[in-house]
Design a protein that fits this description.
Elements: H1 4-12, H2 16-20, H3 28-42, H4 47-54, H5 61-68, H6 73-87, E1 92-97, E2 101-108, H7 116-133, E3 141-144, H8 153-160, E4 164-166, E5 172-176, H9 177-180, H10 189-205, H11 211-225, H12 231-237, H13 242-251, H14 256-273, H15 278-284, H16 290-301, H17 305-313
Helix pairs in contact: 1-3, 4-7, 5-6, 5-10, 11-12, 11-14, 12-13, 14-17, 15-16
Amino acid sequence: MPGALERFWRATDLTPEMIGDPEARVSPAQFCVAWAEAARLSGEPALALRIAESIPQGAFGVVEYVCRSAPTLHEALRQWVRYLGILDDSVEVGLVDLGADVAFRVIAESEAPAPASHELCFAMMLLNAQRVTGTRLRPSAVRFTHRVPAAVLGRYRELFGADVRFGATRTELVFAKTALDTPLTTADPNLHAILLPTAEEKLGRSAAGPPLTDQVRRALRVALSSDDAQLVGVARRLGMTARSLQRRLQDEGTSFQSLRDETRRTLADRYLGQGLSVAEISFLLGFSEPSAFFRAFKRWTGLTPIERRATLHAGAPAS
């Protein structure tokens, strides 16, 4: 559909630059709007299934590889539950013991639900489970609380190979415990042990701040070194207008000036600890002259750069 992609970006307030950032996070509201707009523009009621079938291996980074290197399907599911927050921290999921079965269940829905995203998640989980076990694994049951047109029910049943119920009381993907004992052909205990610390680190960082705020921090770290840390330049890096960036940051409870000061102060502390001169730090942080950096640092910390360097060398905590 000509112009569909441009209409999608306008409707969602997203940009290709933001989506291309591997560390980017999309807010629940944006995610909800993006799903609705993608379905509307594509005219495909089972869009989630088509996406699931076309997602390339490795698209979910360390989370996917932690799961693929696990010893069994059950352990892979446990890892998916633990580290899903790296990819999406707006939904709470869990594994629920049902006796002979285990349910991968949505425990708490997002504040801005995107029901089709659960279809995508379940379809992707099943397809990947089949690949890593080398079996035609089938779930015991598939349940969604939302509804879809009756005309497409057959497509869901064909992909899942099970009865798929919409309008259920819970959203869950259910497997027999015996099926979850299946070993993975991709199991690699050495790789698994290497990946777990990385996954833990990413999980700890995933809730560091609102989506756009984090992206602006990353853009500023790059922009400061290239002397382009002004509002217009950073907005351009994110594919946005300066006005839109200011508005979005205000919605997240901050401002561009506050983030730039915060980033400069953090980097200044690092550079002072590394022994760089005041002139060098001033240049790296994009100040017009060392005296401007000197005044700004005094305003941020109550100390001069020289005094702060002394406290760092003495092992004092950051102020």
